[in-house]
Write a structure and sequence with these properties.
CATH topology of the largest domain: Cathepsin D, subunit A, domain 1
Distance between the termini: 16 Å
Number of domains: 3
CATH class of the largest domain: Mainly Beta
Helix content: under 10%
Shape: globular
CATH architecture of the largest domain: Beta Barrel
Radius of gyration: 21 Å
CATH superfamily of the largest domain: Acid Proteases
Strand content: 35-45%
Number of strands: 32
Length: 413
């Protein structure tokens, strides 16, 4: 069972994403180089909520956890204390614009850094340092996550993502094997961001459109569309869509009949429509049609080849799974030194959790009589999103009270 959320620079993702666009033009860097004669490098990854997290060392830091995100240009650090401890030189201020209701965020820019991961080193790299308190990825993942890396890696090398095996493979040249049943999709790299064309059929027959979507590994939802395409989805419900650099993102959720990319037809995917004023800076002109997110990408073995402008897809075992929304209506975050204290952050209006009287701020003590402190956030969300009709028992703390809540999971979309 998959839960979808956006945290980031939509970072989607229930996020972490969409877009992290510096208002300043990106400056050139030396880029990454292989440290070995091998044709490719395999990097172990952690997969959570459809998001890919890889280790990255910056200068003399220990390995840090960074989300691999095709929606960002310059690498972003969301834990500024790391920049202070390891003395990253902040030379300038830049402005970062993301999805949300807070508008533009002022951030620092560190230059001349060295990025290292297994077998690959980047020299003279830039790093945007987000101020304290703007965004925490760790509370969504339940383990330390320090930032986002995207175009700095993708612009030079073909990258294969295996969601099932939790691995990333970086190729020196576009000489990777193309497996049987793979399909090559033309990739348009525009301003360092990848786009593909898809065909969409709405939830009522006769409503169709061909759209150019941003391929965004940092958006955990399957699809985001501009509010002008709401005609494709008759039945929608108000939803919290995520949290990003520019604050919380509200909108509506619904379903499409089909989404077709190449020869792959994907049935009944969820679609999110961010509210039409999500970009609050009227002086900043930004037009977009939509996002193809990790809720779709994670159903494939994926090769993103910016240099050759190709997206190569091959079905994995997740391809035919049903798309379920948040069946409980609950979003949670992880707090505490060990990220094992779980707090209800949002409750969707008219959801089964709302009807049961669960409130934001409630602390989850147990789920189905299992101690929440002994569970990971993915385990808890998995129990809260098993399948429609499943009964879940929650013990929660509110102020000085201990409450028992029983809910029957329900698909509202």
């Amino acid at each position: 069972m998959i839960k979808y959320f956006v945290i980031f620079i939509l970072i989607l993702i229930h996020g972490l994403n969409g877009f992290a666009n510096s208002v300043e033009k990106d400056e050139p860097t030396d880029g990454f180089e292989f440290n070995t004669n091998r044709r490719s490098i395999r990097i172990p990854a952690s997969i959570s909520n459809n998001l890919v997290v890889i280790p990255l060392q910056i200068n003399d830091s220990p390995p840090l956890n960074f989300i691999l995100d095709t929606g960002v240009n310059t690498t972003i650090l969301v834990e500024p204390m790391i920049a202070q401890v390891f003395d990253f030189p902040i030379e300038d201020l830049v402005y970062v614009l993301g999805l949300g209701n807070e508008g533009i965020v002022e951030a620092g820019m560190a230059r001349g850094l060295t990025f290292s991961m297994r077998g690959i080193t980047g020299k003279n790299m830039n790093l945007i340092v987000i101020p304290e308190g703007i965004l925490s990825f760790s509370e969504f993942f339940g383990f330390p996550v320090h930032g986002i890396i995207g175009n700095d890696l993708f612009k030079q090398f073909p990258v294969r993502i295996n969601y099932r095996a939790s691995t990333v493979r970086v190729y020196r040249k576009p000489t990777y094997p193309e497996r049987r049943n793979s399909q090559v999709i033309p990739l348009e790299v525009d301003n360092n961001k990848p786009y593909v064309w898809v065909n969409i059929e709405g939830d009522e027959k006769g409503k169709t459109d061909s759209l150019r979507l941003l391929v965004d590994m940092g958006a955990t939802n399957p699809v985001f569309l501009n509010h002008s395409y709401k005609y494709l989805t008759e039945n929608r419900i108000p939803s919290f869509l995520g949290k990003g650099i520019s604050g919380e993102l509200e909108g509506e959720m619904g379903r499409l009949e089909t989404l077709t990319i190449g020869n792959f037809s994907i049935e009944s995917p969820l679609v999110a429509y961010p509210q039409n004023d999500f970009l609050t800076e009227a002086s900043f002109s930004f037009e977009w049609e939509g996002i193809l997110g990790a809720g779709i990408l994670s159903r494939f073995h994926v090769i993103l080849d910016y240099p050759s402008q190709k997206l190569i897809l091959r079905k994995n075992r997740s391809f035919s799974r049903d798309f379920h929304s948040n069946l409980s209506g609950i979003d949670i975050i992880a707090e505490g030194l060990r990220f094992n204290e779980y707090i209800v952050s949002h409750v969707r209006k008219n959801s089964i959790a709302c009807e049961a009287g669960i409130l934001p701020g409630d602390r989850i003590i147990s789920v189905n009589r299992q101690s929440a402190s002994q569970m990971k956030i993915d385990d808890i969300m998995g129990l809260l999103n098993q399948s429609p009709g499943t009964i879940v028992q929650l013990q929660i703390a509110r102020d000085e009270m201990i409450l028992m809540k029983t809910i029957r999971l329900r698909e509202d979309i």
